[in-house]
Design brief:
Elements: H1 10-60, E1 105-108, E2 113-123, E3 126-136
Antiparallel strand pairs: 1-2, 2-3
Length: about 140
């Protein structure tokens, strides 16, 4: 009499592979979303840090906000104040966008400023670049 070996059928193996594939796809999507939310949180924290430095500069430097160096893109590269004690405004210390590795955009007029960073928003299952997160002067 022949003895049959116990083994998995092809169908059972395919079902298990399908389930594992679905779980991996869901995990990858969740990880990607978590990364985007973490980058947005970092951008917002960076902007608050820059805002805090600008407000400190304002109180130290005769109630004026710094202006960008001539012909320099991005944030303030040099501090035009007799007492440049605000380290965050120096170009080496300026926070940068976690994904694009560029400086945040700043618009200023000497007595006002506006700093912005793009954020990612998830709507209807689609992730798109939303309106920028911006902070303006507190004075």
């Amino acid at each position: 009499m022949l003895q049959l070996k116990k083994a998995f059928t092809l169908l059972e193996i395919l079902v298990v592979i399908g389930i594992i594939s679905i779980m991996v796809a869901m995990g990858t999507a969740s990880y990607s979303t978590a990364q985007k939310k973490a980058r947005d949180a970092k951008r917002k924290t960076d902007l608050r840090t820059i805002q805090n430095a600008l407000e400190q500069y304002y109180s130290v430097c005769n109630y004026l906000y710094p202006t960008p160096a001539p012909a320099s893109p991005g944030l303030v590269n040099e501090v035009f104040c007799p007492n440049p004690s605000i380290g965050i405004l120096q170009s080496a210390d300026t926070p940068i966008d976690p994904k694009s590795k560029t400086k945040y955009n700043m618009t200023d007029g000497g007595d006002t400023y506006l700093i912005c960073a793009p954020t990612i928003s998830a709507t209807m299952g689609l992730e798109t670049e939303a309106a920028a997160y911006c902070l303006k002067n507190q004075q």
